[in-house]
Design brief:
3 domains; 5-stranded mixed sheet; 31 strands; mainly beta; 14% helix; 13-stranded antiparallel sheet; 2 helices; 421 residues
Length: 421
């Protein structure tokens, strides 16, 4: 006897293979989607399943079982884009859909940019292509450390705009001057060399940090010796006057009464109220015949600066370039992982949320952990293997056709039995 259960095996098989074809189509369609994680549908035979004593238990058919491949890695693709990052190994970027109290997601889609908040605050944050905030740890300039932790409470959105952080002014502490004092200079004649230093007072006093120093070298009556005085425009300078002496070749200079070619110069600036001391290196002076020349001046220090641009560096560090020309860290990207990545729930092909099967998110420091290596200027491509997908597609299409054939055969048998009545 042929009954409606004769169609069950074919129908369930077609459903399972149809589901598999849909998964294959989705995997192929997202071949170029950054951070996409593919899925697979494995067919499972149900022909031995008993349905509450039914005599038709052996006709229960085929089902499709979903296998998530969320832990599978895609190829690392280099872009040199400043806010692209890839994680090689285990783990995901942690993102949130709200500035505070939002839903956290894990993603391998490492293409980020800076997006302006629409609340009129002028604040901008590093976000992913879905508009979610990238989470990490802020940098503390006072201690030169990151405020790291191993739980979600320690991380937060990474802000990156000119109002988010400043680079504090740093007074000049080192100056090196190279010049030639002409050996033809007459006794009593002078050569003035001027250079700028930074007083480190910052913008709070409303005065530019730049200050001017003047060094006056006057040829002494004693051969190869010069009298030196140092003044500051609007400042009081200590350690002056003094003398320098050249050897008979004019190629080596020393400070009279010292074994060093450097001395410390202290200045009190009347206009800003600041004071700073810098080491002045005169070891690159010469005394050759010809013209007086200034060869080079090198000074350190920074005026106060605001954040201009950001980029990812090694170990997930977010570096900031400031308007004063300085570069330093501003934050560090956090890595998140769960006990069972395959148990995550896919919000999209690139973003996942935790479930009871996946476990909760544990946070890792990319500079410390060996679970994953952060690659700057690159992103992780889709985990889809195109060759494998085409192979699966051919196999699945054949299986789908075979299932359809069983239904046609069962239908023909039903028609034959009907005609025998």
């Amino acid at each position: 006897m042929v009954s409606d259960y004769s169609f069950t095996s074919g129908i369930t098989a077609m459903r399972a293979h149809s589901r598999s074809l849909a998964a294959i189509a989705d995997n192929v369609a997202n071949l170029n989607t950054a951070g996409f994680k593919h899925t697979q549908i494995h067919t499972q035979s149900l022909t031995n399943e008993s349905r509450y004593g039914s005599v038709y238990g052996n006709y229960s058919g085929t089902s499709g079982v979903v296998f998530n491949r969320y832990a599978a890695e895609g190829t690392t693709i280099s872009t040199q884009s400043p806010l692209d990052g890839a994680l090689m190994g285990k783990g995901f970027f942690i993102t949130s859909d709200a500035l505070t109290g939002g839903q956290n997601y894990l993603t391998a889609a490492g293409q980020f940019d800076i997006q302006l908040e629409q609340d009129g605050s002028g604040a901008s944050y590093i976000k992913d292509g879905s508009g979610n905030y990238l989470l990490g740890w802020d940098y503390n300039p006072a201690t030169s450390t990151f405020n790291t932790g191993n739980d979600l409470a320690s991380v937060g959105p990474i802000r990156a705009d000119r109002f988010s952080t400043t680079y504090a002014a740093v007074a000049t502490s080192e100056v090196s001057v190279g010049a030639n004092l002409s050996a033809d200079t007459a006794v009593g004649e002078s050569q003035t060399i001027s250079f700028g230093v930074l007083d480190g007072s910052g913008d709070a006093d409303g005065i530019n940090d730049g200050q001017n120093i003047n060094m006056v070298f006057t040829k002494s009556a004693t051969p190869n010796i010069w009298d030196v005085t140092i003044t500051g425009d609007g400042g009081t300078v200590s350690n002056t006057p003094f003398q320098v002496e050249f050897d008979s070749t004019g190629s080596q200079m020393s400070i009279v009464g010292s074994t060093s070619t450097s001395l410390n110069v202290s200045v009190n600036w009347a206009n800003s109220g600041a004071s700073n001391t810098f080491s002045l290196n005169l070891g690159n002076f010469t005394q050759f015949a010809g013209a007086n020349t200034l060869d080079d001046i090198n000074t350190n220090g920074f005026s106060e600066g605001v954040l201009g641009s950001t980029y990812f560096g090694d170990e997930g560090i977010v570096y900031g370039k400031f308007t004063n020309g300085a570069t330093r860290p501003v934050a560090k990207v956090a890595i998140g992982d769960v006990r069972n990545a395959e148990g995550l729930n896919a919000v999209s092909g690139t973003h996942f949320e935790t479930t009871g099967q996946s476990g909760e998110i544990t946070v890792y420091d990319p500079e410390v952990t060996t679970r994953a290596r952060f690659v700057a200027g690159a992103y992780e491509g889709a985990s889809t293997n195109l060759n494998a997908e085409f192979s699966n597609m051919i196999t699945t299409q054949r299986a789908y056709s075979s299932a359809a054939t069983t239904i046609r055969t069962a239908d023909e048998m039903m028609q034959t039995v009907s005609r025998l009545k």
